[in-house]
Amino acid sequence: MSNPFIEEIAQQVSDAAGMAPDALTDLVEVPPDPEMGDYALPCFALAKTLRKAPDRIAEELAQKVAPGERISRVRAVGPYLNFFVNRADFVQKTLSEILAKGRDYGQGEEGAGKTVVIDFSHPNIAKPFGIHHLRSTVIGNALRNLFRALGYTVVGINHLGDWGSQFAKLIVAWKRWGSGEFTEDISIETLLELYVRIHEEIENDPDVESEASEWFRRLENQDPEAQNMWKVCCTISYKEFDRVYRMLGIAFESIAGESFYLDKMAETLGRLEKKGLTQISEGATIVDLSPWDMPPMIVRRSDDASLYATRDIAAAEYRWQTYAFDRMLYVVDVAQTLYFKQLFKALELMGYHWSRKCTHVVFGRLRFKDGGMSTRRGKIVFLEDVLNRAVELTRKIIEEKNPDLPDKDEVARDVGIGAVIYADLDSRRMRDVVFDWDEVLNFNGETGPYVQYTHARYCSVLRRYGKAIPPSDVDLSLLTEPETVAVVKRLEQFPSRIRNAAGTCEPSLIASYLIELCTEANRFYNTHRVVSEDEALTTARIALVYAITLVLAGGLRLLGMKAPERM
Ligand code: ARG
Prior knowledge:
Blueprint: H1 4-17, H2 21-25, E1 39-42, H3 44-50, H4 54-64, E2 71-77, E3 80-85, H5 87-101, E4 115-119, H6 134-149, E5 153-158, H7 165-177, H8 188-204, H9 206-220, H10 224-248, E6 254-255, H11 265-274, E7 278-281, E8 284-287, E9 297-300, H12 308-323, E10 327-333, H13 337-349, E11 358-363, E12 366-368, H14 383-401, H15 408-425, E13 433-435, H16 437-440, H17 448-465, H18 482-492, H19 494-503, H20 508-527, H21 535-559
Parallel strand pairs: 4-5, 4-10, 5-6, 10-11, 12-13
Antiparallel strand pairs: 1-3, 2-3, 7-8, 8-9
Helix pairs in contact: 5-18, 6-19, 7-8, 7-9, 8-9, 9-10, 11-12, 12-13, 14-15, 17-20, 17-21, 18-20, 18-21, 19-20, 20-21
The chain binds arginine.
Arginine is lined by residues 119, 122, 124, 159, 161, 312, 315, 330, 332.
């Protein structure tokens, strides 16, 4: 998204170079050092059209482009054409817009009338909500917030893994080792123990596998006993999931797990067959994908059991019919990359033009730095334990640093959980995350607590100021020092960062933006006294501090974090 300054640059250069302004706006950058200029146009991209060396182009354009209403100076440096804005004008325009829009600053309506479906979180029932599902949950939720901020209708779907042979295995396990009735009072740990034990058993005794297949068949044929046990498993899991989602403050527009598609699968298979896409191979029904160098997609097993893939095709069809989405995002880890390629290819072969609207939003793995999380409950790290641990540790830090803080429990929750969320979103999603407690909770590092703390610090400046916020009668033209202008420039980038983050499905762009803003805000704060005898200057600086708190809080909210006003 461009601003009036970039538009003026594009317009002026377009006149001088004879190119369309639209092609130029996207090229404009912000130089790393403000001494070089406020904006820069790298001329490499123009070299092809203008058939000259980038340095020459920059030089010639510098001669031709005249300063305008908003641009005060133009200078060529190597292949770059650098622009200096009229800073007073820039500061005034940017800050008055932020003050006018308040909490809505950065948001937009460009998504109005468009729907984005986001398939995220999707833990598996009868298995614990493990830390490996944290990433999908947190990234998906941030994307949900980002698209909503841009006016899209967002349908967040929790495609729960609530169907499959794991239930049949659990039933077999319960039949062997369980005692008493299979009821909702059974703990998730017990289910996990059974699950682990039956898998060991399967290795030693292949008969267990066929016993489980038999139970899965009964389950799919709606055998009452099997169905009942399945329902109990679901209830046990829902209770755990609910607690986790409540801690994270996450909700879904639709919770439709894999079982939701059971009655839709026969038709899906029928359509695959009618389109001539299926073959029988060793008794199973497959879609051959060898022309695209991919293994076949198995859509029905030889024992007739349904499969994850078939349920996904049925789910995609259902979602298209129900939501007519403009985009559908599957936030699923890198291990399923090939699977989603197969799925999208199958949808394309079925003749669905909307297969192009489907994207696998890939992310890397998360692990703990050695000894970071004891595995009290078997091999799997429970997300709930991680969140509780983060809150506990934060509570201790607060007790040391600020024992008189009111609402300590609430703040510890907001900051502890925020720290976990931030740690997950902090680097590009494709990268693996290594979770190190000391780093995650470091109030001085590039962490969630640091951003929250910076926000709270400026909130306290506003509280101490004691007068109405936002201040009225502000003369923003008093804000001229380089540290001050640097903050305003960063604030001005917030709307375009939101668009970039949504467009690339990369919430980390917001996370890194917040760190940059904190650094610059702190530099401003450490260099200049906000409240002084100079009343007019004080008011102007307070307006800036208020704008900083608005954008920090807005950014934190987009990531799915809270922005406590005291810490
Ligand atoms: N429950 C699956 C798993 O944990 C992820 C589901 C992803 N969504 C989908 N539509 N396949 O691996």
